[in-house]
Design brief:
2 helices; globular; Immunoglobulin-like; mainly beta
Length: 174
């Protein structure tokens, strides 16, 4: 009988700690934002800083949002004057006790097949998918593009199939 009581107590104790692990406080997100998009744009981008407070590395393997048909983790880079954008193969490493910044011109969450333009003041529901931490859901505010972004910077991602755009050079999307 004592054995059964001890086993039952142990089971209750373990079950009571499960919600704490499910919330997974090891991954935090700072300053997430999406850039507003022009009318007719089919793509958009989300930026943020991801912090990993765990003692082991993790990996951002994907993302999901109901505002777009597809959501991917991308990287932009320049190669001989050509801007290249590609999905990050195998996911984005988040170092133990470290952070990774997703910012214009580098890593970002790409919204592909937007269902409607992203307008300043709107918000985007986003779920980040991590290899170890699991899903982390957040609400991302949409910010207006500033003047430099409107004149050919990378803020307007509505013209992406390789067409030239003022000041941006050629973009190769793979």
């Amino acid at each position: 009988m004592r054995y059964l009581l001890k086993s039952a107590f142990a089971a209750v104790l373990v079950a009571s700690t499960l919600p704490a692990f499910a919330q997974n406080p090891s991954i935090t997100v700072q300053d997430p934002y999406a850039r507003a998009t022009p009318a007719g744009a089919k793509t958009g981008a989300i930026y943020m800083m991801i912090n990993n407070k765990a003692s082991t590395p993790d990996r951002l393997t994907g993302a999901a949002s109901d505002v777009a048909a597809q959501v991917e983790v991308h990287e932009m880079s320049m190669d001989n004057g050509i801007m290249k954008m590609r999905e990050v193969a195998g996911g984005l490493a988040i170092p133990a006790g470290g952070s990774v910044t997703l910012k214009p011109g580098g890593y970002h969450v790409m919204l592909i097949g937007l269902k409607k333009p992203l307008a300043p003041g709107d918000s985007v529901p986003l779920t980040l998918k991590f290899e170890k931490a699991g899903d982390v859901s957040l609400t991302v505010p949409v910010k207006a593009m500033d003047a430099s972004q409107k004149s050919g910077g990378m803020g307007s991602m509505g013209n992406m199939g390789g067409a030239k755009s003022g000041g941006m050079g050629h973009m190769d999307m793979k």
